[in-house]
Amino acid sequence: LFPLGKILPAMITLASVAMGMTAILLASRGEFEKAIIAIILAAVFDGFDEICFDYIRVATNGIIAKTLEDGSFEYKVEFGEEAKEKNLKQIITEFTKYACDRLKQTGAYVSASVYGAVIRSKVDAARVGQDYVEMSRYVDYICPMVYPSHYANDYAGISVPDAAPYELMLTEMK
After folding, report:
1. pTM higher than the cut 0.85
2. Which residues contact 30 (CB under 8 A, 6 or more apart)?
């Protein structure tokens, strides 16, 4: 990324302020995706060469679970008419694509932090909306968050993952 912020700081600061004001205006109109991108672009214009979507997921409170015929669950949250027929993974993946399509044009790297548990657990993936395979089609890399407290007891043969962090990390990194 060409460091314009170092060469033309006043111009870049002005661009960042304009992007921030644009973000506030867009958010007030309910255009949150565009507002988020405007804020991120302001950071890129100020010289950040990488954007990491940390905890890019759906909050788990207020989720409606529906049991499917195969016994699995589909999770829904009210995101308005536009997202009515979409599951959480589709919503997060579409946002990831939307954001990356815009950010990649700047030359900035884009990454996403995902729960480590979603890699093996379809239930966890569906519940927070993270499909790391689909997301990886758009970001430059994925950062699995392998926190022992995120894992249920008896995960991967580990009776209490929270009490066995080394074993959990070893298992997940294989």
Report:
1. no
2. none
